Amino acid sequence: MRKFLYTFVIAVTCVSLNNIPTSASTTSGLPENYSPTRVVTIRPPYGYSPGPISVRLSQSEIVAIRQMQTIADKWAPEVNIHAPIKWYIEPGTENSPTLALAKQALVQAQYLLSRPQLTDFSETSIIIGRTQRFLKKTVAEHNCFPNLDFLNDTFLMGATICKRRVIVINFTGYFYVKSSDDLGVASHETTPEPALEITPYLFADRNIASLAHEWTHRVRRLPSENLFAHNEPLWLAEGMAEVVGGLSIVKASKGRKTYLDFHVVRLRKFSDLQTTCRASLTQYRNRSSNVSGCEYLRGAAAVELLLSRFGGIRNVNRLYDDSNLTGDFVQSFSNVYHMSLRAFELRADKYMSYIRRADHAGVKKAAISQ
Predict the structure, then answer these.
(1) All residues at 6 or more sequence positions from 271 whose CB lies less than 8 Å from its CB, including other chains
(2) What kind and span of H or E run contains 272?
(3) CA 175 to chain centre
(4) Helix or strand holding residue 61 (H, E)
(5) Full set of structural domains in the chain with CATH
(6) Residue 186: CA atoms inside 13 Å, Cβ hemisphere, count?
(7) Which of 109, 116, 124 is nearest to 81 (CA)?
(8) Are strands 53-57 and 38-42 parallel, antiparallel or unpaired?
(9) pTM for the complete prediction?
(10) CB neighbours of residue 348 within 10 Å
(11) What is the pLDDT of residues 124-180, one digit of tens each?
(12) Is 158 in contact with 169 (CB distance < 8 Å)?
């Protein structure tokens, strides 16, 4: 469940990955590397941006982005089967342009995450609306009564609930909740959906990924049921959902959006990582008031590193399967990756330090030396 309000820094970014040179190896043993750095410029493919956006990437980011684009380009499902879906869409929401794009991304997430081990094909209910009344009524009709006390009895944005068999999407939250002042504003529920071309690109990207993000949580539960390992790090659960959401949009866009676009928008521009989420990744293993959304931001960067350097999605699936058997996610991480979870978290901390360092260097300062 998206339980926090992101801090947004609206700014800046379209270059093909072919324009990102790298001489470094992309093997899993490659140590993190800051230099040589490279300035790239993108133009966000969805939503409004006042102009192109330029950022400086560390060498580690360049390598990771190349590998992630390869995953997006070449992924093929092990088996083309999906758990069935039943839709419950509030009247008036059916023709939402954002919903149409989110559905396209969802299809790609289904393909990406399909595999023979998904033997539980019980129906998934996806409930989409603009009003709390519709969402709560429809959820209750599923004999589903989640605890919303910590959210002021509100479905804020997206949630996967009731043994992950019900997905709830509140598009009013996605469209209009930008700060705590926007919570519970009744007039927002009847305000027309903003046109995609005038929606700030940071919001547009997040909103389109909504269904793919929540589907990742749903599929994580499918092969495990009550054998779910409860010590799975929060940063991995939310980071995986964020990255799958990004990969799914890249795949669904048919070339309009690259993984570089996703990386720049979500990891470099969605939040000010210079001042937020500065603790070690280990601190974001468990849900608490201190994580403040960092499980999403730092989690996405860590999962990007994990997928790009350590065996892609196939190894993550092996990790899930092993943890379902052992009941101990930390032990299973060592079994699959032959290093401790803490050792990887330290490496991910280094990766994030280079992202911060490149961000701190800035484009103008870097341009002087070129």
Answers:
(1) 6, 7, 8, 9, 277, 293, 297
(2) none
(3) 17
(4) helix 59-74
(5) 85-368 (1.10.390)
(6) 1
(7) 116
(8) antiparallel
(9) 0.88
(10) 24
(11) 999 999 999 999 999 999 999 998 887 778 899 999 999 889 999 999 999 998 776
(12) yes
